[in-house]
């Protein structure tokens, strides 16, 4: 269809029965058929694909354009043919085995148009046991690039491309490669794109594993096939990306994914002579990408694997591949050797004098997991009580040096506080098949806000709470709270505490979305006034028409006795206060104001908690006046007329002349 928004290009070879569902998923796209053209190139199928395409043309008239050619042996030629016939603003390459989510193209086109990007990745979902890439689909990315994201970790062509980009750079799939042709095409498109988008909040592509395992990447085996395209990917990077972090970012993928797959899935099945030859070729191919600085990006296993490849240690490579396969089948993490404050994984050949492999190839210190659990987190006054456990996974709890860390979020100020180490017999027995036990991982700690800053009070701010978990000379820090007991609340808990400098607000709360504990001192995030509530129904106390009853609720979990009061002010310099009396555990209170004790005047009021205050609500308009006698003269108290916006109580002596005149009027 001329003028289509999207040209969907499908290379089909013996694609039954998957082709039917594939085409249907395109025809039913929410973007509408009037914005689509579907170009199917039958690459010499022999299984009924041709007949099904004729039927589908009748089912979806005007939608499909079908082209036939002799079998080319791979997807490159039919994809290129489809691209040559495409007229759409965008091109989407879809394998005949796979299918689209109903809104996939609409969402991807919208993302490209709104952000002016040239390539759009849609979230992929594996079907039938086929693994789909996930690291680049953790969140929507309206506009990114190949260097600041994980998009390079998916180099299949099932993406939306702006056709003008492909034509401007003459991008086509190389036809001399049986596998890896998509990497060269997509890699070049990434590098030339003005921007890349990621749609991660919708399942766009269903990536199907055929029951006959007829997907082309599964049909074609042999190290030589992968070794043909990998040098060209290296050349692409060297040509277009200067040395530095950007090149290293792209190299990371090839030095890990491609090398591991080649060794484990192909090289091990070759004859011995071929293995030696291929290993030498692989070492030469990766040499331009590898340098010492890459080690910071690589896992210990990847460092070890590359060391063996670069030094052409074939027997060791084969043994490592078998070790990795066994490792994938076990639920027990690899043990470590702790030496000199470093943790070295006990992978093959560790400190083998004949191999002399550097310790760096085994160093997993940075990857050690920190496990923690909080069993108690409780504020009492200005003192925080914490208890729980923390340990380094795979490191026995000997020579424990764990301590608590308080770090002010906006600055560099931190304080380290000692903890009491407590026994945790049997801890760890439920994991790793009981291989590791951590029997001295417990901790108890107190944080007194008046002395935690090296004997001085903590300043106002947000103080994040961490545990520096240490054992055998290794220390790693972890924020605590995300793992806690069911009876340990994560809700904000505010206390008003008396200090030498007056009342301070202290709030223990958990952050979002991670749920870690933080102390808020000085109302940085948690203000006190919203915790003070006064009921609207202020009224005279039952049986005491000169006592004004004011009720409410204070959501601060704790405050000094007598600090919560109702304060009345006559505007002439006189203020009187009346203490609140707690009436229930949820913070409800009431205050009794004996109005017959107030001097004459118009009294306004507020609820006060130390330096914090909220105004009292207006008195009900229909509140009857209170009357009493003081020194034999009649007095009254009533709402001040015309003041419906705030509390205003008029207290006055009755004017007898006016009262008598009103009576006889």
Map the helices and strands:
Layout: E1 6-12, H1 18-27, E2 36-42, H2 49-59, E3 64-68, H3 76-85, E4 90-95, E5 99-100, H4 104-115, E6 119-127, E7 141-144, E8 160-162, H5 163-168, H6 181-192, E9 196-208, H7 216-219, H8 223-240, H9 245-266, H10 272-286, H11 300-310, H12 314-329, E10 336-339, E11 342-345, E12 370-380, E13 383-392, E14 403-408, E15 414-418, E16 420-422, E17 442-448, E18 461-471, E19 474-479, E20 493-499, E21 502-510, E22 517-521, E23 532-534, E24 539-541, E25 544-554, E26 564-569, E27 575-579, E28 581-582, E29 588-594, E30 601-609, E31 612-615, E32 626-630, E33 633-639, E34 649-653, H13 656-664
Parallel strand pairs: 1-2, 1-4, 2-3, 6-9
Antiparallel strand pairs: 4-8, 5-9, 6-8, 7-9, 10-11, 12-13, 13-17, 14-15, 14-18, 16-17, 18-19, 18-22, 20-21, 21-22, 23-25, 24-25, 25-29, 26-27, 26-30, 28-29, 30-31, 30-34, 32-33, 33-34
Helix pairs in contact: 6-8, 8-9, 8-10
């Amino acid at each position: 269809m001329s003028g289509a928004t999207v040209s969907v290009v499908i290379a089909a070879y013996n694609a039954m029965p998957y082709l039917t569902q594939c085409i249907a998923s395109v025809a039913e796209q929410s973007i509408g058929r009037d914005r689509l053209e579907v170009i199917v190139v039958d690459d010499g199928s022999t299984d009924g694909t041709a007949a099904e395409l004729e039927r589908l043309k009748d089912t979806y008239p005007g939608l499909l354009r079908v082209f036939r050619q002799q079998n080319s042996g791979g997807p490159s030629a039919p994809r290129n043919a489809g691209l040559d016939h495409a007229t759409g603003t965008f091109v989407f390459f879809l394998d005949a085995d796979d299918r689209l989510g109903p809104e996939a193209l609409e969402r991807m086109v919208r993302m490209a148009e709104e952000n002016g990007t040239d390539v759009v990745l849609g979230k992929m979902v594996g079907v039938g046991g086929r693994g789909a890439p996930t690291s680049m689909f953790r969140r929507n990315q309206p506009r990114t690039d190949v260097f600041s994201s994980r998009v390079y970790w998916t180099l299949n062509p099932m993406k939306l491309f702006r056709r003008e980009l492909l034509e401007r750079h003459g991008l086509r799939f190389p036809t001399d490669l049986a596998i890896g042709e998509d990497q060269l095409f997509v890699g070049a498109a990434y590098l030339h794109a003005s921007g890349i988008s990621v749609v991660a909040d919708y399942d766009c592509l269903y990536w199907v594993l055929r029951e006959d395992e007829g997907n082309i990447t599964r049909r074609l085996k042999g190290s030589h096939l992968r070794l043909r395209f990998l040098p060209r990917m290296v050349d692409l990077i060297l040509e277009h990306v200067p040395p530095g972090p950007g090149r290293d970012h792209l190299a990371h993928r090839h030095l890990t994914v491609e090398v591991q797959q080649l060794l484990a899935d192909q090289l091990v099945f070759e004859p011995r002579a071929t293995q030696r030859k291929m290993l030498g070729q692989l070492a030469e191919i990766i040499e331009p990408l590898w340098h010492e600085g890459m080690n910071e990006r690589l896992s210990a296993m990847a460092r070890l694997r590359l060391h063996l490849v670069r030094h052409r240690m074939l027997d060791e490579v084969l043994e490592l591949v078998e070790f990795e396969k066994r490792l994938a089948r076990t639920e027990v993490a690899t043990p470590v050797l702790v030496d000199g404050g470093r943790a070295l994984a006990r992978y093959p050949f560790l400190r083998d004098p004949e191999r002399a492999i550097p310790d760096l190839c085994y160093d997993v210190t940075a990857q050690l997991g920190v496990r923690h659990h909080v069993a108690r987190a409780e504020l009492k006054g200005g003192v925080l009580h914490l208890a729980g456990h923390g340990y380094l996974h795979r490191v026995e709890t000997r020579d424990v040096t764990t301590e608590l860390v308080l770090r002010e979020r906006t600055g560099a100020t931190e304080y380290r506080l000692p903890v009491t180490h407590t026994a945790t017999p049997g801890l760890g027995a439920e994991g790793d098949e009981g291989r590791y036990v951590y029997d001295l991982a417990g901790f108890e700690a107190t944080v007194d806000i008046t002395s935690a800053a090296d004997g001085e009070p903590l300043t106002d701010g947000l103080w994040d709470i961490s545990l520096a978990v240490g054992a055998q000379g290794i220390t790693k820090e972890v924020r605590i709270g995300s793992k806690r007991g069911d009876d340990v609340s994560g809700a904000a808990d505010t206390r008003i505490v008396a200090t030498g400098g007056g009342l301070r607000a202290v709030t223990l709360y958990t952050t979002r979305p991670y749920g870690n504990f933080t102390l808020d001192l000085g109302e940085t995030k948690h203000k006190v006034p919203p915790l003070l509530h006064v009921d609207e129904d202020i009224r005279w106390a039952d049986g005491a028409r000169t006592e004004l009853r004011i009720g409410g609720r204070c959501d601060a979990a704790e405050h000094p006795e007598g600090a919560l009061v109702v304060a009345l002010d006559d505007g002439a310099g006189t203020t009187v206060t009346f203490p609140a009396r707690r009436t229930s555990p949820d913070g409800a209170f009431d205050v009794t104001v004996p109005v017959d004790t107030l001097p004459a005047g118009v009294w306004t009021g507020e609820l006060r908690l130390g330096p914090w205050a909220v105004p009292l609500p207006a008195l009900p308009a229909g509140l009857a006046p209170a009357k009493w006698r003081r020194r034999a003269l009649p007095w009254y108290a009533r709402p001040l007329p015309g003041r419906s916006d705030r509390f205003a109580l008029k207290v006055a002596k009755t004017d007898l002349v006016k009262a008598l005149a009103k009576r006889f009027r």
